[in-house]
Amino acid sequence: MNINIITLFPEIFKSLEFGLIGQAIDQKKIHINIFNLRKNAINSYGQVDDKPYGGGEGMVLMAEPLERTINSIPNIQKGYVINMSPQGNNFSQSKAQELVKKNNITIIAGRYEGIDQRFINQYVDEEISTGDYILSGGEFAALILIDACSRFIPGVIGNKKSVDLDTFSNGLLKGPVFTRPENFNDSQVPDVLLSGDHERIKQWKENKALKRTFERRPELLNDIKLTKKQKKLLEEWVSKDIL
After folding, report:
1. 144 and 211 fall within a common domain
2. Contact 108, 51 (CB under 8 A)
């Protein structure tokens, strides 16, 4: 996957050099190209922003430096253009899977009060938000998007099942997990996980995922097709006031 990033702070993306993404970059499974917006400033002072028309707080990134920067990217590599913005569509596991299929994406990491709407209208394919909160810059949101997408690139995660069973991959939260020792501060690992009965363990994990989702994020259940067995379980838990 080829990822272009337009930013005022290229240094922030040095974090991509570490961990699984760093390995994927070394193995050329992911190509990261950083484009410094400041290099296309409108004057020798490095200006890339200005006050908003109509008044208001803060500064706005100007359309001209953004246009020059995005036009410096070869069309064949530009691909799908994304602006990281709190006004965008909510990012999700399914959106990450969708973006990976595009092979080439360009991410604009905005700053200040946003970027000139005319640039968005003319060059941006989609605006994406990583959540209902405000960050100091789009760089951090871009890192989240890149990290989430990279997990779906073949070979980045050694164990594909780890991706398939992640939280949100099947619409549910992931249930509790345990490791050694078997006893920690008088708290035991559930017996079923020590039983060696793979079918029972699988069923236990599915039930715990369903229960945790209902307890913590019940709205997620509206977006997935529950089996008759899952519906029955939820009804039983509710009737017995277990949840």
Report:
1. no
2. no
Active site residue 199: no
67 is catalytic: no
Helices 198-216 and 228-239 sit at what angle, rounded to 10 degrees? Answer: 60
Q: Indicate the number of domains in the chain.
A: 2
Asked whether residue 68 falls in the same domain as residue 15, the answer is: yes
Give the CATH number of the domain where residue 198 resides: 1.10.1270.20
CA distance linking residue 141 with residue 11, whole number of Å: 15
Residue by residue, pLDDT tens for the chain (243 residues) are 999 999 999 999 999 999 999 999 999 999 999 999 999 999 999 999 999 999 988 999 999 999 999 999 999 999 999 999 999 999 999 999 999 999 999 999 999 999 999 999 999 999 999 999 999 999 999 999 999 999 999 989 866 555 555 556 678 999 999 999 999 999 999 999 999 999 999 999 999 999 999 999 999 999 889 999 999 999 998 887 654
Q: Which helix (H) or strand (E) holds 99?
A: helix 93-100
Cα separation, 152 vs 84, whole angstroms: 20
> Among residues 67, 68, 86, 206, which one is catalytic?
86
166 flagged as catalytic: yes
Q: Which residue of the set 64, 67, 113, 126 is catalytic?
A: 113
pTM, full prediction: 0.88
How many other CB atoms are there within 10 angstroms of residue 140's CB atom? 14
